[in-house]
Amino acid sequence: MSGDSDIALIGLAVMGQNLVLNMNDHGIKVAVYNRTTQKTHDFINGTAANTSISGASSIEELVGMLKSPRKVMMMVKAGEPVDSTIEQLLPLLDKGDVIIDGGNSNFTDSERRAKALKATGIRYIGMGVSGGEEGARNGPSMMPGGDSSAWPLVKEMFQKISAKTDSGEPCCDWVGDNGAGHFVKMVHNGIEYGDMQLICEAYHFMKAGIGLDNAQMHSIFSRWNTEKLDSYLIEITADILAYQEDGQYILDTVLDRAGQKGTGKWTGINALELGIPLTLIGEAVFARCLSAIKDERVAASKLINGPISAKQDLPESEWVPALGDALYASKIISYAQGFMLMRAAAEEYDWTLNYGGIAQMWRGGCIIRSAFLDEIKAAFAKSPTLENLLLDDYFRVEVESAQTNWRKLISKTVEIGIPAPAICSALAFFDGYRMASLPANLLQAQRDYFGAHTYQKVDGDGSYHHTDWSGSGSGVSSTSYNA
Length: 483
Description:
alpha/beta, two-stranded antiparallel ribbon, 53% helix, globular
């Protein structure tokens, strides 16, 4: 016997609770369940009191409260908890019902689950949800993928609760088959790692290079947020720099040891597997790893000498504009690399991705939302098959016009000893990408010398050759392959 709830949600942590309240605000009737039943009781009788939200004390009761076809959304910890919850749901569901994983699952798990559930007749959606607590409550960015036949059953509901662009378009649309939704969310998080690291490097240069205090840096980030660097992360950086308690800046009390939950690492691993030079995001992940060895860094600081020993007091009027250009150019590189990775994944996993649509999904609600994404959407609207953002006129001109200040800024960081790994790697990628010839010919010759790995010739037909460089080889070559 069917119930009257439109959707069920399992997992009442912060994101789950706020999504449920968001749904309730939009007239969606939700049934909820949490493994710790006291949490369900507290939610129903607390924050959700006087709403149409219903609580269940078991998964069996929860499923019984749903209209058919039933839709069950999970907001539980990635990995085994998701598989365990699916196992509990399967005997209770009928063919055509829908299971939605809205957590931060690895896309490979979503690929596996989508295919396994399709064989049972159960429809699966793996959906990335971004925006944190505020986004979940007021409108997140939502990136659904999986079984496309499930999308019409939840489209109206999810687009109602998602963030909207300034023109009213929902920041939620179908991404692609199987694990595509969680893949796009993974890339989003990787770009988020890159954006955050770039901003941290800008902050470090302002503080140690230019010698600015928190109030001055707050003013600069606030101004940047009204210009082309306008974004959520720039906005909250300005807020963080200004925040005080009892006359003390809280930022100055925060230990410089960064945490991470793994999505940036997943992005880097997948880039290596697909052979995409995701250098900036990789450096952002490694920067967090370097920050984590705090005790070792403190010990090293007492033994190893470098050029920087105090604030440099560089002229603000000269170096803040240079820093702004370097930050914007590096941001373009970060997104260019992210979209390169999505293009490679679409080919590898047989997905059809709408890159302009993805930019729109990231335009509101999510952590990397920024005015900048309008330009990405426009670039793909002009050229849906655009191979790289750097080949679009807008982005090409922006980077070319910024590069004098970008190079100047990097030269100064090297000179005075302020680490800027993400900004530096962005420029190195830019210079490598624009080179018709790279020194990989020497690398191939080295590989052929010590391992007979063969090489192709510049004026050849694509066939592989081997040279007995030392004169003592056997004339037998290794199999040619690309890893």
